[in-house]
């Protein structure tokens, strides 16, 4: 939308000079109308209410090209307010369109909102999902695949086809019942199953000898999974928009909210092969078994489905350290990814965030540095824009862990545009964590066990760590990321584990400068929905 915003400013100038200058065509616009309804499906054999988009479960795949402008009118026919968020889309200068309750008013029932955003300078495998209430437990999610623009070469031969796999844990229980249980102060039970593309079992057909790109995302609520294909290796090529060193793997761990893309060559005898996703690090193991079907196969899959890795957290952490940036590969722009020497940029601020369970008024909640987030009735972004006081606090949360009881608040971490920050996620609990930051991707420079100290910096990968939008943190361990704060706005930093997010394990990061400029942030959209104390204001 750069061009759109700049157009009125420059067109007079260009009119004068148009005989001299060639004006670059504006990036293409794609228009969508999506209607959200309830429907009934039986993914685990029992009929249950699910959320459909245009009648589909999961929702339609958004298949776009880098820099396309997306104009998507979302019509809410549910009985509850609703929003979608675009997981991993950076929304440059445009947190107005992020689709979380801190940036947007939810779309009331029988109403609509038109999102306007650009897939600016991104290539890769992303998703979208509902951010409101506990809707994610009912579906409403889908794939968001961004293909390269014509002049940009991929660092691997174009695959013969794409398979998109949205994999996640699933409950047979209605989303309102699950939410009610959380509201009453109880944790969710272990999920009932794992679905691949909304089904317990499915199959993918390819031709012998050809190479396919598998785009695998964890769209679940709480559980990491391990993914593997009988008799085939997986060559990793992309992680959440980063082109990787192309290592081959027998199996890959994918944590909640994450996406990976890898190539699989159908170089085996023509038959069917098992595709397996099974929960990781869980006492009960849930398994989804599907099929890779060779188009010339007349033989059912046979033998033992490939087993899960024998080793747990340590194995997984070692695997995570092998995910590295291909420094000579192109990014979405035609310059090498590694031309930005992130390891040499001085860190301007270190933020250490410790997660913990919290019992507040006798109810289970979760906290970050002792603060358990609650959504106000007015989105933080709108409160900030209209200068409405008392909605959020820039002093509620400390940027280092401290001792003391947890409390509820609406904390914002203030930062300055062009800061370069180090964020350490310190997991004080014995369960897996997964942290997501909106508006950015970040370098995951280190994973380690035990408490983080400054001395751990000597273990960081400051050369070819990859950038991604969601990082896992192992039990009683830490994960360190570096973030270049080049995107002004109000950005959600949250647990991707949905019970935790819902019960307070999230904050907002305000990236701000006193210079008011469209080069830094777009204007409030003319169709903005207003709610809470922003009702009646004039955008
Ligand atoms: C709702 O949809 C109509 C078109 O049907 C559109 O003109 C309007 O801008 C949409 N509302 C919002 C808030 O985006
Ligand atoms: C890195 O990308 C280049 C293309 O720019 C490719 O030729 C090379 O094979 C890739 N290297 C690795 C190790 O994956």
UniProtKB/TrEMBL annotation:
Residues 36-150, 162-297, 377-514 form the Plastocyanin-like domain. Belongs to the multicopper oxidase family. The keyword Signal applies. Keywords: Glycoprotein, Signal. Residues 1-25 form the signal peptide. This is L-ascorbate oxidase. GO terms for molecular function: copper ion binding; oxidoreductase activity. Transmembrane segments: none annotated.
